[in-house]
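Hi P.,

Sorry for the delay on this. The queue was packed all week, but I finally got your sequence through. Input first:
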Amino acid sequence: MHARKTLLFDDFGRAWIKKGNDNAFDVAMGAYDGAEICELVGLFILYDLETNLGAESVGLYRDDGLAVLRKCSGSDADRMRKKITEIFKSYGLRISVETNLKSVNFLDVNLNLINGSYKPYSKPNNPPVYINTSSNHPPTIIRNIPAAISKRISTLSSSKEIFDQAAETYSEALSSCGYSEKIQYSEKENINSTKQDNSKKKNKSRKRKVIWFNPPFSKNVKTNVGGTFIRLINKHFPRGSKLFKIFNKNSVKVSYSCMRNIGAIMKSHNAQIRRSADKPPEKECNCRKKDSCPLSGKCLSQAIVYKATVNSDNESKQYIGLAGGTFKERYNNHTKSFRLEKYKKETELSKYVWGLKHKDEKFNISWDIVQKSNTKMRKSGICNLCLEEKMAILNSKMSNPRISLNKRSELISKCRHSRVKKK
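Then the structure:
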């Protein structure tokens, strides 16, 4: 079985593959779609297991499986164990199988087949740890943690007695993290009433289109960012405005996001230093005549925001752009639009250049690097490079709007490097 080779690459573009067997199925730990591939492979193997164990007797969640054998002797169960091991071995996978169990731990629950009870389970020497009350998290998250734990442990407990036996461990974990509350048992809803409620026909309701604003939360900020944002919406889009239907308190919501913790910041910083230290020195220019390089010997610079200054007899104009790849590639596209009239509408810069040509005005263009950045994606679905370009355009228009060739619509344009696809 071979779904695909790994898509995990190092800084030099080399793919990580399994040593000694290039043709084996391989998904490296840390692959971006590792969870999806695990689900796909699990479903494939589950189909093979169903033919031997029965469609309703076996289940799989990622890399944990559970099977129930009814009216099966110990020897039959052992033969089934060997058969399952052979199935996995035929795919180049290893599996450990335990049989003849009356009680089994599956994920975070212990299932008892003798009395039909179930209770919470956690691995040995693995005490639960929760967010400290002094942590830099939004208050709503910290406030709802005890209630969420209570609901989860109640769901995993078949009775109040079993809940009380497990509650002490989780209450102590909460107390060590600064919480004064203890987890409380919540009665389960009546299954029959739930089925009756679900059987009732519900009226279809149209989903409201909501725009979410997710500012990062920090206790160091005294300003009520969420409240200030809502007041600005009410101020600039009052009732009666043309855009009131789009921007109002029902269509625009605020929800705080969490900042990265110190461990994540240090890990990212160290990884960046290691990458820069291991990288071989990059070639900055490949021009045959170094004196004619458009960017003063740095035409192979990548992920940059650049500025093109057009000087003519009557005026001087500036254009801000970005290059996700090398600047040389972007420069060649610009010169193509300057030479061929059919490409004159590609950019605002090419439109202006062709306007000067039609007027027979002499001009020259100089190129400079405004900012070096990267195409690393943010949680908002936009990369750092596009944000830097928008900031450079904004600064150019604020300092001297008359010489800027960029349009205001470029400030709200979508990120061209975005890998986030809206469904």
